[in-house]
């Protein structure tokens, strides 16, 4: 059962992040505008983040999909997802109601609250993928 859950989690995450990165790559300027609406970075940094983030998502998604370097890809996605969660909590706390931009300009608008719930579920899948990789045992260290 664990093996099945691992593969379902890995494939779901791989496809989801390939799709999310792909939709952002198609419209990098629009994605930079979405990042700017979060009001977290100086103007020029919005373009830098928009130019880098989708390619990280594409790479990590492809690695998960092809079952290669699963642990590093899961770790990167976990860190990214944690950053997304912090940014969404910041939006909610400041009362900003904007589209999260999670899937570029495609699809329907997602409120920060909806995106936060989705990202928390994704964090569980990321943890399962990282922790339950078949053939790898985590060693406990004793000092």
Structural overview:
The mean pLDDT is 90. The longest helix has 25 residues, at 2-26. The protein has five helices and no strands. Helix 1 (2-26) packs antiparallel against helix 3, helix 2 (28-37) crosses helix 3 (43-65) and helix 3 runs antiparallel to helix 4 (70-94). The chain has one domain (2-131). Helix content is 72%, strand content 0%. By secondary structure, the protein is mainly alpha-helical. The protein is globular, with a radius of gyration of 16 Å.
Characteristic key phrases:
143 residues; mainly alpha
Question: What does this entry show, briefly?
Answer:
With 143 residues, the chain is mainly alpha-helical. The chain contains 5 helices and no strands. It has helices spanning 2-26, 28-37, 43-65, 70-94, 112-131.
* Count of strand segments: 0
**Helical run tally:** 5
Summing up helix and strand content along with how strands pair, one would put the structural category as: mainly alpha
Give the topology string: H per helix, E per strand: HHHHH
Strand residue content: under 5%
Oligomeric state = single chain
Q: State Rg.
A: 16 Å
Topology, element by element:
Elements: H1 2-26, H2 28-37, H3 43-65, H4 70-94, H5 112-131
């Amino acid at each position: 059962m664990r093996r099945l859950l691992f593969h379902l989690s890995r494939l779901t995450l791989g496809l989801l992040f390939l799709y999310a990165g792909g939709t952002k790559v198609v419209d990098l300027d629009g994605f930079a505008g979405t990042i700017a609406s979060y009001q977290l970075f100086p103007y020029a940094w919005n373009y830098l983040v928009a130019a880098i983030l989708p390619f990280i998502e594409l790479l990590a998604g492809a690695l998960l999909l092809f079952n290669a370097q699963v642990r590093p890809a899961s770790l990167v996605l976990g860190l990214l997802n944690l950053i997304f969660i912090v940014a969404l909590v910041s939006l909610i706390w400041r009362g900003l109601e904007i589209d999260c931009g999670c899937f570029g300009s495609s699809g329907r608008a997602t409120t920060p609250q909806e995106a936060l719930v989705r990202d928390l579920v994704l964090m569980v899948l990321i943890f399962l993928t990282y922790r339950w990789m078949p053939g790898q045992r985590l060693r406990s260290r004793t000092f």
